[in-house]
Each structure stands twice: as structure tokens, then as C-alpha cells.
Amino acid sequence: MKLDLDALIFDMDGTLVDSMPFHEKAWDVMLPELGVSIDRFEFFTWSAGLTNREIFPRLLKRDVTSEELAALADRKEAIYRDCYAPHMALMPGALEVIRRAEQGRVRVAMGTAAPPENVELVVDGLSVRHHFPVIVGGNDVANGKPDPEVFLKAAERMGVAPSRCLVFEDTPAGIEAAFRAGMHCVAITTTLTDLQVRALPNTSHLRAVVADYTDAALLSQLFQ
Question: Which of 14, 16, 56, 187 is the most exposed place for a label (fewest CB within 10 A)?
Fold first, then answer.
């Protein structure tokens, strides 16, 4: 690999799969039930990458019991899975990048805020679990993105130094988490435009901003 890396770490929603519109549909159902009215982009900016246990108290502006949190999170994610299941597909070119990385003895992992049921839907529904021997999800960390914990744990489980990892991300929080982890990053523009990505506060670690994994410039960076 031209970037001289030891590992690729993929976020899931909006990065490995273009699933964020279906999360939005789930929130469109949930928010009126909760009596909450929000600016869509503002909500996305602060919530994408966080776990449900972080989102709901902030969204409701109050403490949430563990029982209530479980019920709210279960409902929101069940709605999402029902919406997304008929449309599941890997991002264009993703599988080819993963396979070429594996052929080059580059490790592959997933670092996501998603709960286990959502991860299972994707990795088993698309038959790609064997490509991700290391998966760090929302239940595995104390803090969601932009905290770097999820990516640092993935690197630790792979036995790879953070500086030798390349993260694929699509959200401001995820891109920032990669920066804080001391990792390289490629931004996938499923949820942000190229201009929005480049306007983020920390972008020195960005190696590319691309629409998907078929981008010729990205592939030329990654593979000889």
C-alpha cells in the first residue's frame, strides 16, 4: 500500500453502507412521539457517531433511566432496521478495497457507534463478517465519537499502532475521532459535501475526500 499502512478501520453507517437516510426516517417517526422539534442538520452534526445512551438524554434535555433508555433505543433501532433491511448494499467499491487490503496483508476492522443488532444486520445480511475479524461497536465503548475510544480499541485489538491505521468516515464526529486517535482518514461524502468536510476544524489527517471507494485517486493512494 502506498500509504504504508497496517490497518483499515471502517465506520459502518454512511461509510461501509449508505444507511444514514434510513436512520433519518427512524428519527422522523420517533421525534414527534417524543414531542421534540429540531433542526435536522444541527441534530445530525452533534448526534452522528454518538451512542443512543448519549443521544437521548441530550435530545430530551433530562436524565433518562436505564429502562426508558433501553425502550427508546430499541424502538428507534427497530424502526431503522425495518426501513433499511430491504435496501442493504455495500458502498460501491468497498468490497474490492477490503479484498485488496487483505491480499496485501493489511488488517481490516470496523469501528462504529451502532448497537450489536444493527451490526449483525449489515455484516451477516451482506455476508461480510469474515472480512471484519475485529468489530468495535457502541456497546464496547464508554464514549461515542468524537472521542477516539472506538478507533483506539480497534487498533489495540488488531495489535496495530494508531499512526499505522487509516479510518474511513462520513461524519464530523467520526472524522474528528480519527484525528484525535492520531490516525489517517478518508472522508466518504454520503452525509457531508466536499466543502463541508474541508471546512471542519481538523483536517490535516485527511488523505482523500471521495464519493465512494471506486474513486481513482483514492485507489492510486492505497494500492500500487
Answer: 56
d(CA 140, CA 143): 9
For residue 25 the three cell numbers come to 426516517
What torsion, rounded to 10 degrees, do the Cα atoms 160, 141, 72, 175 define?
Answer: -50
* 140 labelled catalytic: no
Q: Give the pLDDT confidence of 137-162 residue by residue, as tens digits.
A: 999 999 999 999 999 999 999 999 99
Q: What percent of the chain has pLDDT over 90?
A: 90
Q: Exactly one of 13, 147, 170, 215 is catalytic; which is it?
A: 13
pTM of the model: 0.92
Indicate the CATH number for domain 7-18+89-222: 3.40.50.1000
Sorted by where each begins, the domain ranges of the chain are 7-18+89-222, 20-86
- Reply yes or no on whether 13 is catalytic: yes
Residues 163 and 177: their CA atoms lie apart, in Å, by: 13
* Residue of 11, 18, 147, 170 with catalytic role: 11
The whole-number pLDDT of residue 1 equals 56
Integer Cα distance of 223 and 5 in angstroms: 11
